[in-house]
Design goal:
The complex is a heterotrimer. Chain A is built from eleven helices and ten strands. Chain B is an all-alpha fold. Chain B contains eleven helices and no strands. The chains are: A alpha/beta, B mainly alpha, C mainly alpha. Chains B and C meet through α1, α3, α4, α5 and α6 of B and α1, α3, α4, α5 and α6 of C.
Chain lengths: 277, 288, 279
């Protein structure tokens, strides 16, 4: 990755491919209305309203500190573990407001999985990592069922061939890229509807990054994916819709090809042409 | 000229301070050495199988350490059984469930204070509470309960350290997969913190093995010609037996005391070594 | 959860048990006689309940211990923090930990049967039971505590201060004594106070080597009795529950608890102040 600022024409060519993926007809799966988020007294997100569709890859882009990771984590209520956070507004997933009092947060996280920026495999075997979600949620009955699910998830994460002979070795012995795919397999094992990915390839080398991007392209057949990325080319390559965040507000949201080639807001155009950020 | 003199003095005083520091440490090392040599010289000759398996007696040559050894192992074992679940539980609560509430801070200050209370005060607590009010009598149970309270702050503090060292990413990964807080603690945090918790256990056990004052205060006997039968029996312990022999004027008892000290030190060494070994094995297994 | 509340229960228990018997004690013996009386003979026929001899006994031994532990501990800490190469540290730190971990009964043996006879060769008037021998040994026992806490305090002083001094041409000693130690002063004071608290509460060394004769004196060469030794002495005997003799150990215990609590709180407060300065 060179650090040249991308010129509009090259992004345009990338984005036109993205534009061929028509997304307009898909049902809305995540609907956010007027979301405000506070860390204690500090407001991190202001009045976010966005509707993301099923089986679509939506990318969140924006300069660092703009709130895109915070917003991502709000979608599976991972911010709950940070003390002092407050949420106003609605987040509806498949029609249900996940912030309604009495919501089962554990069940929510089963349906909305997450992959983190820095891969965090548990200090257990490869098999046990993937099976962890199955165990804590009691999703499988017999050992055979569990083994079948583990295999299915590792295949879906394009890792099976590399590890099938050493399932019981420690996950910490894998390379960075393999560990990240393991974390993806682990998330897929519990069969979520939505997969949230927080800069999943930022800590990886270009080849590993490419494999992850190919994987995302395959996965969107079965899952709805929301990906945070600071790499605009990645967003252009991988996503169908893109949302641009700036200083805690949603500046523009739309199909990726349009956002990169003909953005409506000046701020968006400045960002995607590299004038800042 | 004055500058030269000051710098000569500066260089000299620098060396002097360095030398003094080293001297102090050498003296401390020498003191430890003198202690060990003194005990060895006095007591090595007295160590024998007969010593380890006999009961105390009025005749110094016949006195043995068996009831004291058994008593110590019994009481300290029971102490661990009481203190570890309580201590780890309290630490888990404070670390994982506690907020910055005033109650949590109060408990923290409280535990820090309890760590500094003289051990004999714990003895008085044990006497008033366990021996009298709860009518346990001067039993193994009362002794173990008292010692458990004594070592509890140590277990809690070191367990909290171990829990804090577990990386946040491990917890987050677990929560993101839909695990509850308890599942995360039980399946990820505690196993990860286990080596550190074991360290705390080592410290607690070492402390308990060497403690004399609280046990004397709750009424551990100093002349015990029998082995404790169960947790309600009266008992004695190694340090108490040593204390008893040291207090006797006859020369033979001095040797017996020294031999007793050697047994005590050997027990401490064995406990520490075993626990360190277990901890290292665990750490190796986790890091693949 | 219950477990955490347990620690509060323990403190409450200590206070309650001590208070219960102490109040009963003060119904029979006026508190002024207890605190200011100079004769302590509760176990003799002619009963006297002035606790001062026990207090002076405790203070005498503790002061001797501090005279050993404080300078030596501080010197050791300065050396380890500012001078010591890593090879020396690797040997010295475990040795200090072992010193701190030796059971006090063993130290008592050492004081009575090695240190006192040794001192008797130098000081002919030294009694077999005295304050000097156990005081010195207690100092050796407390040295690691002072050293490690002071070292922590010195370590917390930001390196920038040291480097500023070195850049002005200071030797390590000048930097240490003029810049680092003053900067770490409240942390070191906290360590010293904690060490005093430890010395006051120490039991076995004095029970074995200092004697059981309560005596209002500042002479370190004669037998004395400390507060802790007295409690041990009564516990070894056959004092029945509910008698005033039984209650004396709680009254003395109360005094001991109150003193160490005050010292521990002072040390805690000082350490908090120190952390604020450098955290």
């Amino acid at each position: 990755m060179t650090s040249q600022t991308p010129s509009l024409p090259s992004l345009r060519s990338l984005a036109t491919d993205a534009g061929r993926r028509a997304t307009g007809g898909r049902p809305i799966q995540i609907e956010v209305t007027g979301l405000n988020f506070y860390y204690g007294q500090k407001q991190a997100l202001a009045d976010i309203t966005i509707a993301m569709r099923a089986n679509v890859v939506t990318a969140f882009i924006g300069p660092s500190g703009c709130g895109k990771s915070t917003f991502l984590r709000a979608l599976n209520r991972m911010n709950d573990i940070i003390p002092g956070t407050r949420v106003e507004g609605q987040v509806r997933i498949a029609g249900q407001d996940i912030y309604a009092p009495g919501t089962d947060v554990v069940a929510l996280r089963r349906r909305v999985g997450m992959v983190f920026q820095k891969s965090n495999p548990f200090p257990k075997s490869i098999f046990e990592n993937v099976a962890y979600g199955l165990r804590v949620n009691a999703l499988t009955g017999s050992r055979a069922e569990m083994a079948a699910r583990v295999e299915e998830s590792l295949i879906a994460a394009a890792l099976w061939d590399e590890v099938k002979d050493r399932l019981h070795e420690s996950a910490l012995a894998l390379s960075g890229g393999q560990q990240q795919r393991l974390c993806i397999a682990r998330a897929l094992a519990i069969r979520p509807e939505i997969l949230l990915m927080d800069e999943p390839a930022s800590a990886l080398d270009p080849i590993a990054t490419q494999r992850i991007e190919e994987l995302i392209y395959q996965l969107k057949e079965r899952y709805t994916i929301v990906i945070v990325t600071h790499n605009m080319q990645q967003a252009a390559r991988v996503s169908d819709d893109t949302a641009f965040f700036w200083l805690g507000t949603l500046v523009e949201f739309g199909p990726t090809d349009r956002l990169f080639t003909a953005p409506r807001e000046k701020l968006t155009e400045d960002y995607v042409t590299g004038r800042f950020g | 000229m004055r500058a030269a003199r000051t710098s000569v003095w500066a260089a000299f005083s620098d060396r002097l301070l360095q030398g003094l520091g080293l001297l102090v440490l050498a003296l401390a090392l020498a003191a430890l050495g003198a202690l060990l040599v003194d005990v060895l010289v006095d007591g090595a000759g007295r160590l024998s199988w007969q010593f380890l398996t006999s009961y105390p007696s009025r005749r110094p040559e016949l006195s043995g350490i068996l009831p004291a050894l058994v008593g110590t192992i019994f009481v300290v074992g029971l102490t661990a059984v009481i203190a570890v679940p309580l201590g780890v539980g309290a630490a888990v609560y404070l670390e994982e469930y506690g907020t910055q509430s005033r109650l949590a801070r109060l408990v923290e200050i409280n535990i820090a204070n309890l760590a500094g209370v003289p051990s004999i005060i714990y003895g008085l607590l044990g006497l008033g509470l366990f021996v009298r009010m709860m009518a346990m009598g001067r039993s193994v149970l009362a002794g173990a309960a008292t010692l458990a309270l004594l070592v509890l702050p140590v277990v809690i503090l070191s367990t909290r350290e171990a829990l804090r060292a577990v990386p946040k990413s491990l917890r987050e990964g677990s929560y993101a997969l839909g695990a509850t807080r308890w599942q995360t603690i039980w399946r990820q945090v505690l196993p990860s913190a286990l080596p550190g918790i074991l360290t705390g256990l080592i410290l607690a056990l070492s402390r308990a093995i060497g403690e004399t004052a609280p046990l004397i205060t709750i009424g551990a006997l100093t002349y015990v010609p029998f082995l404790p039968a169960d947790i309600w029996s009266p008992f004695t312990a190694l340090p108490i037996q040593i204390f008893n022999w040291v207090s006797r004027p006859q020369a033979g008892f001095t040797e017996a005391a020294a031999a007793g000290i050697l047994v005590l030190l050997a027990l401490l060494l064995a406990t520490n070594a075993t626990a360190i070994l277990i901890r290292d094995r665990l750490q190796k297994r986790r890091n693949a | 959860m219950l477990c955490a509340a347990l620690s509060i229960v323990v403190t409450a228990g200590i206070v309650f048990v001590l208070l219960f018997e102490t109040i009963a004690f003060f119904r029979e013996v006026p508190i002024t006689e207890f605190l200011f009386g100079t004769e302590w003979t509760p176990l003799f026929l002619n009963k006297s309940y002035g606790v001062l001899p026990l207090v002076t006994g405790t203070l005498l031994v503790s002061v001797i211990a501090m005279l050993v532990a404080l300078p030596a501990g501080l010197l050791s800490a300065i050396y380890l923090s500012e001078y010591a190469p890593s090879g020396v540290r690797r040997i010295v730190k475990p040795v200090l930990e072992i010193l701190a971990g030796v059971p006090t009964v063993v130290y008592g043996y050492f004081a009575l049967l090695f240190v006192t006879p040794l001192l008797q060769q130098v000081i002919p008037g030294l009694a077999a039971f005295n304050a000097l021998g156990p005081g010195i040994v207690m100092g050796i026992m407390i040295l690691p505590l002072v050293s490690s806490l002071s070292e922590d305090a010195l370590y917390s002083v930001p390196n920038g201060l040291r480097e500023g001094a070195y850049a002005l041409g200071a030797t390590r000693m000048q930097a240490a004594l003029r810049v680092v130690v003053p900067a770490a002063f409240s942390g070191i004071s906290a360590a010293a106070i904690l060490a005093v608290s430890r010395a006051i509460g120490e039991t076995m060394i004095v029970a074995i080597a200092a004697g059981q004769q309560p005596r209002l004196t500042l002479n370190p060469l004669v037998p004395v009795e400390t507060m802790t030794t007295y409690i041990v002495q009564v516990s070894l005997g056959d004092t029945p529950t509910g008698t005033i003799e039984y209650r004396t150990i709680f009254a003395v215990g109360m005094l001991l608890f109150a003193s160490t609590l005050a010292l521990n709180l002072a040390s805690h407060w000082l350490r908090g102040r120190f952390r604020e300065e450098y955290a």
